[in-house]
Amino acid sequence: MNYHVLTLFPEMIEQGLHTSILGRAMEKGIISLKAVDIRDYTEDKHRKADDYPYGGGAGMVMQAEPVFRACQAVQGSIKGKKARVIYTTPQGRVFDQMLAEELSREEDLIFLCGHYEGIDERVLEEVVTDYVSIGDYVLTGGELPAMVMIDAISRLVPKVLSNEASAEFETFHDNLLEYPQYSRPEVWNGKPVPKVLLSGNHDRIEDWRREQSILRTKLHRPDLYEEYQKNQEIAKKIKKPAKNRLKTIIIDKALAPEGDFQSPWWNEFQEFIQERGLPLIFAAETGIERYRRIIQEEKLKRQEVLVFTGTVEGALAAREDKLRTIYLPIDEEEQEPKGLIYYRKISDLLEGISVLRSLT
Ligand code: ADE
Question: Hey, which of 115, 138, 143, 144 would you mutate to test ligand 1's pocket, going by the most ligand atoms within 8 Å of its Cβ?
Fold first, then answer.
């Protein structure tokens, strides 16, 4: 993973991220970090990169040209496809573990840190691919948010943590908070360590930890608990007896991204399918018989099929044939047809895929 941070304060990034686990990962060449000084790309002899806002108002605005040139220079230095450009702004999508996981699969990431009253809108329109916030509060600049994100993303990059399992079974995995941890002494301040942890029985310990995770999540994060329950319900619905195990996936052609468009859910989806050796059949036709025809031609049993559809008609066609279905409305305004396994947003499918992984 190569990070490129466009900033007016490169020393802040360099000092903040070269220590501890990330410092070690950089020394080992697992990740690299370049702070790019936007002022190096201004033509002003005083290295000025900001100016007054048109229309008046407090503060200064970062000018378009230096930001554009800095970004072009970085994109030009990257081999392969263009990197995603993340603008850190309180107006963006709120960063979470799912986005961290998605971004950790990129080869290069460019962070654009704003300052003062922001950046000239025109260059944002030209270069930014993702607007991301780290929470509903306003900071003085985008450097700390970029550092927060880099830290969260890096620990998900393979080999950054010495024990990879530790990134896998922790807080937010499965939408659950982490279970409580204890270390020596066995009794501290009159409080003993829970007995089960001293039992040496790994199955019981695992069960206890899972239970603690669930209880904690229910108590402290009812929002996450609700998601967890939803996913459990979905898993129950699709994890049918062995004879109904998933053998083939049919997907509406319209749902597959075209050309070299990079879609995180699509990449994840393909990875899932390859891992399981599942055939993927594209449904290009329309009409109520579209899936029925494929099932007949391929001599499949309808219980072994899972359909991904992007339209109401597709969802209705799947329901007509009682097929297990995930409906991803291409048009987000669409209403949910009843009786389907259903995700409203394409981004939710990333979580759905972790449910799907337990299918085969
Ligand atoms: N810049 C200023 N405040 C921010 C926030 N909350 N998230 C991301 N970037 C920011």
Answer: 138
For residue 88, report the distance from its CA to the centre of ligand 1, in Å.
6
Cα 247 to Cα 72, 118, 254, 285, distances in angstroms? 46, 51, 22, 21
pLDDT at position 343 is 54
Domain extent for 128? 2-154
Q: Is residue 165 assigned to a domain?
A: no
Ligand 1, atom 6: nearest CA belongs to which residue?
Answer: 90
For ligand 1, the distance from its centroid to the CA atom of residue 91, given in whole angstroms, is 8
Give yes or no: residues 11 and 144 share one domain.
yes
Using the 3D structure, point to which of 99, 124, 154 is the last residue of a domain: 154
| CB 7 less than 6 A from any atom of ligand 1 | no
For residue 230, what pLDDT is reported? 85
What is the sign, positive or negative, of the torsion defined by CA atoms of 139, 140, 141, 146?
Answer: negative
Cβ of 135 closer than 6 Å to ligand 1, yes or no, is yes
The whole-number pLDDT of residue 268 equals: 72
Which atom of ligand 1 is found nearest the CA of 142? 1
Predicted local confidence at residue 352, as pLDDT: 58
CATH number at residue 55: 3.40.1280.10
Q: What pLDDT is attached to residue 342?
A: 57
Q: Determine the Cα–Cα distance for residues 301 and 268; give it in Å rounded to an integer.
A: 26
Q: What is the pLDDT of residue 265?
A: 67
Pick out the chain residues at pLDDT < 70.
163-171, 173, 237-244, 259-265, 332-360
**Does residue 9 sit in the same domain as residue 150?**
yes
79: in domain = yes
Give a yes or no: residue 182 inside a domain.
no
Task: Give the model's pLDDT for residue 170.
Answer: 60
Looking at 154, 183, 207, the residue that finishes a domain is 154
Locate 265 and state its tokens. 């859910």
Q: Cα(114) to centroid of ligand 1, in Å?
A: 9
150 and 18 in a single domain? The answer is yes
Q: Burial letters for 300-337: b for 16+ Cβ neighbours within 10 Å, e otherwise?
A: beeeebbbbbbbeebbebbbebebbbbbbbeeeeeeeb
Q: What is the pLDDT of residues 79-90, one digit of tens each?
A: 988 999 999 999
CA of 137 relative to ligand 1 center, distance in Å? 7
128 and 23 both lie in a single domain: yes
Task: Give yes or no: residues 12 and 131 share one domain.
Answer: yes
